Amino acid sequence: MFTKVHEDKVIALGGTIPLDGRVSWVPAGATGFQPSNCYLLSEGSGRLLVDTGLAVHSQEILDDLVELLDDDGRLSMFFTRSEMDCVSNLEPIAGKFDIERLFTGGAINPFDAFDDLSRLALRGRRQQIDQKGEGGDSMARTPEIEVAPGRHLTIESPLLRLLPTFWGWDANTGTIFTSDTFTHGTMTSPDGSRIIDSLSQDTTTAKQVAEHLYAKYEWIPRATCEPLREWLSDKFETLAPETIAPSRGCVIRGRELIRRHLDFMLAALAPEKA
C-alpha cells in the first residue's frame, strides 16, 4: 500500500522487512520492521520513479504503479545506487510499463540484473549521471532530471558513501532523497506509519542512529569524519529540507524532526567526542 509523502507529488511505495536477525544492513539486535522504499514523483503528466525497491515487494509495487500511473503507463527512473535494493524491480517494471528515460551512475551496469530482451531498448534510453565526456552508453553528467516543466530533481553526490551513490533534491516539495543514509527509522508493526512526523512521538535515540549508521559504514568509529560532518551540515543548512526520504527506513518529515535527526547523525560522525 502506497503512502503519500507530499500530497500526490511524492508517494512512497514498497513493503516492510521484519528485523529478525536475517537482515545484514541493520545492527545486531535490531527489532521491529523496516520500510523498504521507492518513490514516485508526479507533476502533470511527468512521472519519475526514484529506485525500484526490493524484489520481495515486486507485486506490491507493480500493483501500486498500475493504480497511480496514467493510462499510457509511461515513467522515467532514477537509481540512487546500483545495488539490488535499488534496481531489483527494474525487469518487472520495464516489462509492464513504458520506460522513457533511465538515469544511472557508477560503473556497474544495471542491466546485468536481468536477461530480458527489453534491456536492448532500455540501453538507448539510459543517461549517465556521474561521468564527464562521452563513450559507450555514457553521456555527459546530468546535474538534474526534469520531472516536468518547472520541476526538477537536482542530483547530489554525497561524501558519505561506499559505492557510487547519488542523492536527489526536489526543491518543489522540499524533499531530499538520501539513498542508504538516514535509514535508522523503524516501525513497531508492519502496518504502522512509514513516516515519522511527530516530534512528541518520535522515539528515535542517538544510539539507534549511530548503530544503524555503523552497520553500513563500519569504519566510521575508526575514521576522522570532520569533512563528512561539514559536508552534511552545510548541505542541510543550504537546502533546508522539509522531508528526508531514504531508500530504507522511515521517512522523516518536518524541520524540527529533521534538525533532531541531523544532530543525531552529526554526533554519530564524531564518535571520538561521544
TrEMBL record:
Top-level division of the source organism's lineage: Bacteria
Cited Gene3D superfamilies: Ribonuclease Z/Hydroxyacylglutathione hydrolase-like
Family annotation (InterPro entries): RibonucZ/Hydroxyglut_hydro
Protein name in the entry: MBL fold metallo-hydrolase
Species whose genome carries this gene: Arthrobacter gyeryongensis
Lineage, uppermost ranks: Bacteria, Bacillati, Actinomycetota, Actinomycetes, Micrococcales
